[in-house]
Amino acid sequence: MFEAEGRPKVIRLKMPLEGEMIVQDAIQGEVRFDYGVLQDMVLLKADGFPTYHLAHVVDDHFMEISHVIRAVEWLSSLPVHWQLWQAFGWAIPTYAHVPVMLNPNGKGKMSKRNPPRDAHGNIIPVLVHDYIASGYLPEAAFNFLANNSWNFGDDQEVYTPQEAVARFDLSGINPTNAALQIDKLDWYNGVYIRQLEPLDLARRLRPFLESSGYEVNVELLSALTPMLQPRLKRLSAEEVMAYAGFLFAEDFPPLPREVLLRGFKGDTATAGTALRSAGEALAGLAAFDAAQIERALRATAEALGMKPKEFFSLLRNALTGQEVTPPLFDTLPLIGRDESLRRLAEAAATLAG
RNA sequence: GCCCCCAUCGUCUAGAGGCCCAGGACGCGGCCCUUUCAAGGCCAAAACACGAGUUCGAAUCUCGUUGGGGGUACCA
Q1: CA of A86 vs C1' of B1, distance in Å?
Q2: A316 in contact with nucleic chain B (CB within 7 A)
Q3: Could you give the ipTM of this predicted complex?
Q4: Which residues of A are catalytic?
């Protein structure tokens, strides 16, 4: 009669009206549902296409799927699927409903539709791809994720996928929903960055610098990378520049007095003397390498009766213009002897004038 | 509303009745190292949601409450 009237029709799965259904889940254990509250779900829509429920069971049967692993939000539809398997008379695969990832603040599940935000209101990435683009190493992301709702055991936090696979078992998954702790991802990332071969790190850093518009001198980057390695939290031009921007600047214009004297408590004349003395010491070196530079500069500081801290902060100001840099002994060779001497002389001149 | 799942430090977790006045990690605080920043080392603070049971004994078992999450579509 419906058809005669031209009305659309669907095909539903008839569920028992009463009784209790017991399903098995590898993580949640035995779950019970009253048939009374379960609906007759649509299997074929009016347009003739199957719903997920039908497609899932039919597809997975013919694809010989052994384990269905999905998030707990699917647990509610498990009875329908269970009933379908039984209706078809097919063997039911192992179901495992894993906990969902909660937003970092623990409120609501992670979703790209409503991305979480940090304390500053910035969007926190949701897609794995976005994490990679944000400078997180795949190996760090894996390790971090693996430690959510599961753990390696033996109080070991850092491990490889191979090690994890060897130990992993569905029954070891903690059914509790877990909030993502981005701070810990940052820590993992640092751990993995430090484990990289320096040249590998340099290679991975390069595209991030280039996409930010920096021209990369491969030799310089390779020499710089070991200094960056213990300091970087992520692969990002921003972090690299925070430490070594002075090596990437187009030119190095004269620095104002307040920059040159930043953090220095002594008088200007003393500062000027220190810079000139450092220049003289460096000029006389047989080789411009870290070991010789360190020996010469420490001797100079001692001769001047200055504490290393005040002496080196003056040099850092004059040579880099930055408050934070990798250790000077290592970075000076990257600046080069001539340019280093030029910067020291220029700074001394500024202070004298 | 109804149904389902979950519940240990701020966060991720260890813990499957006595080994726990609860262990590890991140973060936080302090100290050491130190030319700045990191890294590294050491120390500290920090939790069994609550209430009833069961038991000689409960973070571990049961029930309830509260809280959180999810589902209630001709979406996945």
Answers
A1: 31
A2: yes
A3: 0.92
A4: 112
